[in-house]
Design brief:
The chain is α/β, with parallel strands linked by helices and 273 residues long. The protein is built from 5 helices and 10 strands, in the order αβββαββββββααβα. Strands 1, 2, 3, 4, 5, 6, 7 and 10 form an 8-stranded mixed beta sheet that branches. Strands 8-9 form a two-stranded parallel sheet. The longest helix has 26 residues, at 3-28. It folds into 2 domains: 1-30; 38-270, Collagenase (Catalytic Domain). Helix content is 25%, strand content 21%. The N and C termini lie far apart (82 Å).
Length: 273
């Protein structure tokens, strides 16, 4: 075989390998989607889904560490009555199924407790939609092993790794024309120290605090679930410091387990009776 023929054969092989590599990338694009999701607060286009938008909420540690515990822990702090603002989406009426990753739960919280606190937290928001119970939350009979968000048809709650400053990140995919959410994932950051204070054990709500050295899992999760329903983060401390949707989380805090008047008013505006 002369050099000219060898060169032609080599060129064909190079082209074939390149084409195979491109096809492999295309076939794996959906599977690798979770690795390219943004972890910065904002609204994004969804590649391959021109009808969807992706909203990312990054929940951060409260920057002012001088705040005394009395304004963090107490369930009986002054009520936050200013209505919480809404987002461009809402959940469809009816049953919304969520899936848990129990194997991801920190030992300090307890894997068996995730279903308990998620059920309680969802119940707070479901009751806030009014007597008609327009949104009913139902835990899936199966579990997930996913620890990162992805557009896979499941609404998951898991612990995983997010960017260093985020206590939790919630991803909402919604139809930009109808405003109906199609999928939601919440990732709690396993980098932080976590604990759980069971509300059924609280004997003095006016003085109860969780672990002073950890973030209470139900407190943070209840806030994140407000995003599922279409509520925004609120950062004005004067009006929202005691609201569940206040935009910062603190150690020892449990007050977000219960909804303020402003949280309920915000939900009522999205899902009126």
């Amino acid at each position: 075989m002369n050099r000219k023929i060898l060169a032609i054969v080599f060129s064909i092989l190079v082209l074939a390998v390149g084409l195979s590599f491109k096809i492999a990338l295309a076939n794996n694009s959906n599977n690798s989607q979770d690795s390219i999701l943004p972890e910065q607060d904002g609204t994004y286009d969804v590649p391959g889904h021109s009808d969807l938008k992706l909203r990312v909420f990054v929940y951060r540690v409260k920057p002012d560490r001088s705040t005394p515990p009395s304004t963090i822990c107490n369930l009986l702090d002054p009520d936050s009555t200013t209505a919480v603002g809404s987002t461009p989406w809402r959940l469809p009426t009816g049953t919304w199924v969520y899936t848990l990753n129990v194997n991801s739960v920190p030992a300090s919280v307890g894997s068996a407790n995730l279903a308990i606190m998620a059920g309680d937290a969802f119940g707070r928001w479901s009751n806030a939609t009014g007597a008609s119970n327009k949104i009913l939350f139902d835990q899936s009979s199966s579990y997930t092993t996913a620890t990162r968000a992805s557009l896979d048809g499941k609404n998951i709650i898991t612990w995983g790794r997010t960017q260093g400053t985020a206590l939790a990140v919630t991803y909402i995919w919604y139809n930009k024309s109808t405003g109906i959410a199609t999928e939601v994932d919440t990732i709690m950051n396993s980098k932080f120290s976590w604990s759980w204070s069971d509300p059924t054990t609280w004997t003095s709500p006016d003085t109860t605090c969780a672990n002073a050295n950890a973030y209470d899992a139900q407190d943070i999760l209840t806030h994140e679930l407000g995003h599922w329903l279409g509520l925004n983060d609120m950062y004005n401390a004067t009006n929202y410091q005691n609201a569940t949707m206040y935009g910062y989380g603190s150690k020892a805090e449990i007050k977000k387990d219960t909804l303020s008047t402003g949280d309920v008013a915000g939900i009522g505006a999205i899902y009126p009776n």
